[in-house]
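Category: protein sequence paired with discrete backbone structure
Discipline: computational structural biology
Format: plain text, a pair of labelled lines
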Amino acid sequence: MIRALIAWLMLLSTQAATYYISTGGSNTNVGSLASPWLTVQKYWDVAAPGDTGIVLSGNYAAASTTTRSGTSNAPISLIGSNW
């Protein structure tokens, strides 16, 4: 029972996530489509291997940088969308 719980928790911690960024968002939001972040920098600050950031249409004036790295099997992706 304990081993199964540990395996389940490890699986949860390795699940990739999809986050959304919108000019109408807030960096205190959760990063979901219904509650997106405001800046790309917020995404870079939390992104983990396998995660995808989707930047919704709009003008983003702020620059962003990251020191995080994905892996060959789980890259960190950032894509644009015209939603």
